[in-house]
Amino acid sequence: MTKPALTLYLAAPRGFCAGVDRAIKIVEMAIEKWGAPVYVRHEIVHNRFVVDGLRAKGAVFVEELDDCPPDRPVIFSAHGVPKSVPAAAQAREMVYVDATCPLVSKVHIEAARHAEAGLQMVMIGHAGHPETIGTMGQLPEGEVLLVETPADVAGLDVRDPEKLAFITQTTLSVDDTAEIVAALQARFPMIIGPHKEDICYATTNRQAAVKQIAPDVDALLVIGAPNSSNSRRLVEVGRAAGCSYAQLVQRAEDIDWRALEGVSAVGLTAGASAPEELVDEVVAAFRARFKVSLEKVETAQENVEFKVPRVLRQPA
Ligand code: 0JX
Ligand code: SF4
After folding, report:
1. Could you tell me which residues come within 8 angstroms of residue 56 by beta carbon, excluding any fewer than 6 positions away?
2. Separation of CA 214 and ligand 1 centre (Å)
């Protein structure tokens, strides 16, 4: 039986960003330096395959610092942690390495700087997400007001409308965030924003590639985990850009092939925490069912790299 023809549009950039690369390297290098087990507070990045791979090398994943023994090193995940976490690790005299992405740390510094200047902070982000918890936790409890939607802006109860600044989660939808920022600026014309927005280059670039592909495909698949904010945003961006069938899949076995019957053009991308092996796996699964012609859609080139902390570059 001849296979149906299919064009698979592969987004570029896709997959690992510099912050994820660095965070994974930090765990691997910590295990090399100190031996197993090395504890990791929270999934180092939101991807089961990455986590399972590191667990096999000797990483132990826990949710709270209290779940770590005091005599083993602990790593904080790429998403960042509230100030109280390194403080507690220090109080317990633990060895810790912070794998917070430098672009998340930049937002932490911004928040502290604005607060020092007497400004009240508004954070645009998702409640309960570890990055939001970590960023809000740079300042005392109750100091940062959270908004998730333009409608939330109307309900903000601020100390002084003329002394406000906003920050954002790094992995938000660029377009949805612009709407929230517009609502903030409409209600608080004096509000100060980041010099350059807090949404990071990787989030921005992956969304731009999806926007380019989505209008021309019958379906869009985003490889990523259900708890990966940036991956979920790619699905939403794909739908908003005109692809009604946009789905998050963790790997090839999640693909609903019946839903893809009769398609001739499919877009494929991967969130910032999804390994390229999973992209290869999905492409191979398409090749098994279709006569695939692969087309790369490149909307940007990335050459960002972050160094690992000095403690890991020094001999044990
Ligand atoms: O849920 P997020 O997109 O913030 O995290 P994930 O999927 O682990 O991606 C990499 C880490 C991003 C931090 O900004
Ligand atoms: Fe850093 Fe952006 Fe990657 Fe998050 S998505 S780890 S902020 S580069």
Report:
1. none
2. 22
